[in-house]
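Hi support team,

I submitted a single chain yesterday and got back a structure, but I'm not sure I'm reading the token output correctly. Could someone confirm the output below corresponds to the sequence I sent? I've pasted both exactly as they appear in my results page.

Thanks,
R.
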Amino acid sequence: MEKAKVYFTKEITPESLVKIYEALGVELKGKVGVKISTGEPGGHNYLKPELIKDIVNKLNANIIECCTAYAGRRMDPKEHMEAVKEHGFTEIANVDIMDAEGEFEIPANGKHLDVNIVGEHLKNYDSILNLAHFKGHAMGGFGGVIKNQSIGIASTAGKTYIHTAGATRKASELWDRLPEQNAFLESMAESAKSVADYMKGNILYIDVMNNLSVDCDCDSNPEDPCMKDIGILASVDPVAVDQACIDLIWNSDDAGKEHFKERVERQKGRHILPYAEEIGLGTREYELISID
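Hi R., thanks for writing in. Yes, this is the structure output for that exact sequence:
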């Protein structure tokens, strides 16, 4: 597989988000969903409405989300929408909680997952901008576009199915059915691949490397960022763009990177990248192209 192109800018502004999308040279057509994490109330590191407003409006898109599999403000669709409003997202676009009216299965055909269970409203979209806040994660080690496309687009039952590597769909059983770590990471890759296949490749990928906490936006009480902001990366290849983010951290001279690396390594987080490459989601080989 030839090297993927990953575009990079150090500037993190509404204008630079539009600029890096345009650098990809691919137009998202039809009904577009912008998949972000709207953030668990109490947390503060999620991508803010004022940052993403211009790109969402340019695409005339809905912001799309699904409910969580853990107890909190975003497990129930109505509570979730209230949290979305509190964080200001409904002021910039329509927000679609895609599993508010149900879910459906798409083929996964993986080693761990036979299917992926996603929000019913995914059927309404022709293309997706996968707009991820790159950060650490207590369970996955790190979260970027692969996690945003796997856990993020799965329904509550689907999230449970991924987290347990296909053992159960019942959220009440999640914490009692956790698998060996690599099986969880591989299940995330398999579910992300299932979404890419279902959308027939009509997805573009952006990682925003700001507010670099070791904790996810799903955490209501995350650690403060341990590194300085790095920039925005974009690609048509999800594996390449997540790999590039990891490489930028590993090669950084920021002293805070050791704490971030410890979180990733503790959870064997980098394992997801070669596995995602193995199953055909993308390539880890890339060319980093600065647009500054």
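A quick pointer for reading it: The chain has a mean pLDDT of 95. Let us know if anything else looks off.

Best,
Support desk
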